[in-house]
User: Fold this.
Amino acid sequence: MRALRRPGRAGRRSLALAAAALLTALVTAACSGTSPVGGSSGGSGGSSSSKSLNGNATGTVTVWYRSGFAPLFKQLAKNFNASHKNLKVNVVPVADADYITKLATAIRAGTEPDLTSLDDVDSEIFISKNEFLNLTSEVNALSYKDKLSPGALKLATSNGKYYGVPDFADMSVLWYNKTLFSQAGLNPSQPPATFAQIKADATKIRALGGSTYGFSFAGDCPGCLTFTLMPNVYAGGDDVLSGQPGHEKATVAGNKSLQATLQLYQELWKSKLVPANDQTQNGTTWGKDFQAGHIGMLPGGYGAAASAPAKMLSQFAIAPLPGPNGGYSTYDGGANFGIPAGAKNPAGAWEFVKYALSLPAQQLTPVGGVEPIRSDAVTASFKAKYPMVAQIVGYLPHGQAPYTVAHDALFNLVSQPWQEMFNTAVYNGNVAKALTQGQSGFTSVLNDLQS
Amino acid sequence: MAAKNITKPGRLGFALTVPSLVLVLALVILPLIYAVYISMTNFPLVGAYHFVGLTNYTALAHNSQFLHAILLTVAYTAIVTGPIFIIGYGLAMLTRSNRRGSTVFRTLFFLPYIVGLTVESFIFYVELQPNSGAVNFALKEVGLTNGATAWLVHTIPGMTAICLLVIWFGSGLTMVLLLGGMQGIPRELYEAAYIDGASRWRAELRVTLPLLRQSIALSLILSVIGSFLAFNQFQILTQGGPGTSTTPIVLWIYQVAFEQGLIGKATAGAMLLVVVVAIISAGQFLLLRDRDARAS
Assistant:
């Protein structure tokens, strides 16, 4: 048997020609692709909807939502489909951690959903790239527009136009254990309203001894720390960013409220008023120790403790997150709706948005451990059923959240500036160095993303 | 004429390789070329992009986080490769005979590799927790610590945990690779060596090691490439923190691409990694070449 020979000259030439042709095609395709597939029509701050979305929508509308909110969206879909004959909704859960990447990939591939319910602080990532429809006229036409969370609506705004609309709220508050307050000789109807009071109350509760601690936080979860610390900064009248999205600057160095907040957490940690394993709490079991009745105070969302057994829940109360010397704020977390520019059924999407913002639908939000985005959703019957949620909705006008195109890069990574700053300040005990480090880290990330 | 040509052995051989060539071209070469192009753009997660030439590459040369990630990856590779090989070799020596129970031990030693790095990373994560993990519990019981040490949020303890985990994980694979080579060595060679007066260790050095050259090269190359591409254990145990102190190169690429949304910049980093891994693979090719076959 003869050995197989290498391709002859003609064969090699054919191979080379084929490869060259493929390469040429590839490079041509690549070089001509200077804008994304399924992209937008341009203009500043987002795409314009060419006609009103308030038409007679039919067909199917596909809605993506963060998988953590499955109970809420499944219920909404069930109710919507039961009440709409010619328009059906298909709600698709997408893992929280991959949501932005998957949505961006789908938009590039031209396979985007008709509607997306995304973390409201990530809205600007898409709005700044013209990927969402301009909904200004539709939002302005909503009779309850002035009842929507102003902070969440701001996150869907660019140059005075709306490229999205708030979906639901997920705000941060200070949970406290009334029983432990009483046992420590504190007045359970007087939660702390300043940093000094937080520390004093935590000290008295820790004095109860054993496994009882005054305070707890998710110390290795940058997103959780943003959610719970930024309101302290906002309440003090400061922010860590300035400027419009895409033209932001870091305002970490010299930030008095941030400095006081980091100082408070450092003192709580150093004085062992918080459990040692808070340092490695990455959010997976956040709030469980509070739900078990071992913790005096826990900054967190409604969902952090609302799932506690009824008997335990009756011992809990909530208060707003204070600033260093008073005042209060809340983190305007939650979700915003956006209709991708390439949506195949934008009218259907808007129909679902209107349904999700209706009072009956909004009053379902506690099912998902979150709150209504409309202040007028708090009716007497709703308040009787969900008194704590009603209380939280009252904080809506004081809500705020980072208005940025770089939220995840700045705040959501253990290896990025926000967590690094917290570690240096709290665990290493150097607040001054932490602020310098934070300013440098924020500036570096912003330079990268805004260049 | 065409039918005649195709029957020639050379052309037939070439024709038979065409499906594989097409697959390699479509699934490896073209995506790689496209990745090179992306690395020369400011490709964001969403939105328009344009060609920026070598800007991403020159920026990487001055990017302290990227340079730190490279150094960390090299250091990590240097730290774990030796122990993985030595322990793997030791385990192979222990289990190479077909004595009673050898199979059980081989299975036990190989089990960490079968279970998988992701699952084991989660096990380490749980057992290293302060106050609740087994490690802290044991250390507290013997009076060495108060049981509240947060091992994974500090650089040195975090890296130590990752290295120990990977050595435990990787030694089993090295054992299996070397075991295959050891069992292929003819028994007569050892008998001849012993007749010539060689001790057990001398036979190991003069007979086993030289004949295991290809298996050793393969295990080392797999180990080094695996270390260069390390991701799961870092993502689960330390997430690259504190700060960026335990961020290896692949985790850096992932974070820049999917957390910061800078696909062009991340792809430039990935292309440099591809070059490094390609060089290692070329080294593998050279080491694995059979000298005897070439000589004949």
Remarks:
- The first helix of chain B runs from residue 2 to 7.
- The radius of gyration of chain B is 24 Å.
- The mean pLDDT of chain B is 89.
